Amino acid sequence: MPPALSLLARQATSNVCTTPLCHAIGNEFAQYVNLNVDPCSDFFEYSCGAWVTSDEIETENDAADVYAINARHSLQNIISFLNGTFEELTEIIKTDDAGVHTQDKAEIDKKIS
Q: Superkingdom, according to UniProt (predicted)?
């Protein structure tokens, strides 16, 4: 090896972290690398390909799916409220809570509309 390259190689290796924590972090990153892909062809697939198909990302998607399901359910409820009659709406939102006077408010709303 030429002297200049030898000097650069020594300097590069002297900056490499060899602590147990660095090894643990390196191992964690290594488990997500897809070694079946050429990094020059598809760097994202090479560096993250195994992570994208891992259980970890599926768990994150499950949380997003729960949010999407709740949002879709809420939207369906709103659409059914808008398509229904006033009487159907008051039946749906009826409560036994003494602090909420839906029947009184329904009578007032009927007079206004």
A: Eukaryota
Largest interatomic CA distance in the chain:
95
How far is the C-alpha of 104 from the C-alpha of 89, rounded, in Å? 14
What is the per-residue pLDDT for 2? 58
Q: Going by C-beta distance under 8 Å and a sequence separation of 6 or more, which residues neighbour residue 81?
A: 89, 92
Look at residue 27 and tell me whether its pLDDT is greater than 70: yes
Q: Sort residue 55 into left (φ over 0), alpha (ψ -120 to 50) or beta.
A: alpha
Cβ neighbours, 10 Å, residue 88: 12
pLDDT digits (tens, 9 = 90+) for 88-101: 877 777 777 666 66
**What is the pTM for the complete model shown?**
0.36
